[in-house]
Amino acid sequence: MKSLKRLLLVIFVVYLLPTFASAGWWAIQDRPGRWSEARWSSAHILPPASESEEAAIYVFSATTGGMKGAVSSHAWIVTKEKGAESYTRYDKVGWGSPIRRNHRPADAYWYSNPPQLVTAVTGTAAEMLIPKVEGAIAAYPYAQPGGYKIFPGPNSNTFVAHVLRTVPELGAVLPPHAVGRDYLPAGEFVHLDADGQDLHVTVRGLLGFSAGVRSGIEVHFLGLVAGLDLAEPGIKVPALGRIGL
C-alpha cells in the first residue's frame, strides 16, 4: 500500500501538478474563442524562399487552440527544394483528407500562437534528405479520411513524429507537450529508430518510455512526457515543454 501511495504521489507531482498549473494559467489568458477569430498568417520566421538557392527542411511546433493549448501543441513539416521559389508545408489535421499540403503559410501562427522552430536542415544535407522525408510522408499509414484521433493518436504530432523517427538524420524529437507524438503506427509496442540510436516502448502512446541520443530519457504517462534532455541539457516537463539547464 505504501508503494502504491508513493507511486500516486510521484504521478501527481511529476505529471498532474504541472498540467493543472498550465491549465490554470491558460484559462486566464486572452485568446481567440473560435478558429475563425484566430490569426493564421505568416509569423515571418522564414525568409522568402526565393532569397536562397539552398534546399531546406524545417519542423515547427506551436501551441494549439482551445483548452487543448494548456497541455498540447501542433507540429508540421516544411521543405524547400534547391532553387525553389516557394516552400511546401505538410500538416495532419482532423477534418477531410488528413494530410494537408500548403493549407497555411509555411511559418504561420497556429490559433494565434507563434510557431517554434524544432529543427532546421539546409544545403546539401537537406537535398539528400528531402526524398526521404517525402517517402516517409507518403508511407504514413493514417493518411486516409478518418485516420485522425485527437487522443491518444494518431493525430498531427503522431504524423510528424513518424517522419522524425523514419528520417533520424533530421536529428530531432518533438517537444514534450506534443501530445500524440509517442503513439506508434500500426500498433507497434517497440520501435527502434532507423539509425538504432533511439528506442521507444509504448502502449498506444499512453504509457511507455523513450531512451537514446535524441530522446534522452523520457517516461510517458497518458500522453504527457517527463524526462531529461541529454544532448542539450535540460528537463522535459509535462504540459510546459523543455526547460534548459
Account of the 3D structure:
The chain has 245 residues and is of the alpha+beta class. It is 21% helix and 27% strand. It contains 3 helices and 12 strands, in the order αβββββααβββββββ. A 7-stranded antiparallel β-sheet has the order 6-7-8-9-10-11-12. It has a 5-stranded antiparallel β-sheet with strand order 4-3-2-1-5. β6 and β7 form a beta hairpin.
Number of strands: 12
Low confidence ranges: none
Considering DSSP H and I runs of 4 or more, what fraction of the residues is helical?
Answer: 10-25%
- Overall geometry comes to globular
Strand content: 25-35%
Distance between the terminal alpha carbons, to the nearest Å? 36 Å
Average per-residue pLDDT, rounded, comes to 91
Q: Which sequence of strands runs across the widest sheet?
A: 6-7-8-9-10-11-12
Biggest sheet layout: 7 strands, antiparallel
Features:
alpha+beta; single chain; about 240 residues; about 25% strand; 7-stranded antiparallel β-sheet
Write the layout of secondary structure elements.
Elements: H1 2-27, E1 56-63, E2 73-80, E3 88-92, E4 99-101, E5 116-122, H2 124-138, H3 156-166, E6 190-192, E7 198-203, E8 207-212, E9 216-221, E10 224-229, E11 234-237, E12 241-244
Antiparallel strand pairs: 1-2, 1-5, 2-3, 3-4, 6-7, 7-8, 8-9, 9-10, 10-11, 11-12
Helix pairs in contact: 2-3
